[in-house]
Amino acid sequence: GIVDLRISNITLDDAGLAEGIHLYQAHTYLEGVYSEDHDGAGVLVEFSRVRANGLNVARNGGPGIVLVDTLDGTLLNGVRSTGNAGAGVLVLQGTAQLADFLIESTRSDLAAGPGDGIAVGFGGHIELADGRSDVNQGHGISIQGATGVLRAGVSATDNRGWGLYRTCAEGELEVQTAPTFENNGLGDQVSCP
After folding, report:
1. Which end of the chain has fewer surrounding CB within 10 Å, N or C?
2. Burial 151-185 (b: 16+ CB within 10 A, else e)
3. 16 Cβ partners below 8 Å, 6+ apart?
4. CA 61, 67, 71: angle at the middle one, nearest 5?
């Protein structure tokens, strides 16, 4: 596993890569990791199963955390994502659980994305518990063409977009405990029939 690592200022190389940490086909854990100020994503995980406790990503030129086709059992606990571009946490085609998270101040970027705190798409699946997604330039939580579960203690406030944006016809959302959505620019949440 990776424990007590601080990595920063990775710049774009000749191969076009600039992630702080890139895990590919790995089964590992991260604990007490800080990945900050990179030209690309703070953490990129592909085709892997990762367990994390205390994962901090900030001010990256790409999303804070990108999960691509991650495997069942991927659990991120204690995520702190601040000031990243495109998305705080982006889940594509894989599955992930987030607990005890704070995603904030995600900024929009033409190349990286609209600035959603948490974005799930392309058949991804997310389970959220005990966390906040606040003051993002996009939506607090965006689930498009994907599925999700909202457990106790989830909130999204003061985002420029919706607190919860979802595409109703593509994917399902299970709400186990009513989340808190307040003061979002476009409204609290998209209503589905």
Report:
1. C
2. beebbbbebbbbbbbbeeeebebeeeeebebeebe
3. none
4. 165
- 121-136 tens-digit pLDDT: 999 999 999 999 999 9
For residues 73 and 15, give the distance between their C-alpha atoms in angstroms, rounded to a whole number: 31
**Global model pTM greater than 0.90:** yes
Using the structure block, give the residue that is written with the tokens 């007590």: 4
Structure tokens, 160: 């420029």
User: Residue 41 has which token pair?
Assistant: 């994503």
**Strands (DSSP E) along the chain, which ranges?**
2-3, 6-8, 21-24, 27-36, 43-46, 49-58, 65-68, 75-82, 87-92, 95-104, 116-121, 125-134, 141-144, 147-150, 154-157, 162-166, 173-175, 180-182, 187-189
State pLDDT tens for residues 127-172. 999 999 999 999 999 999 999 999 999 999 999 999 999 998 888 8
Tally of CB atoms within 10 A around 12:
12
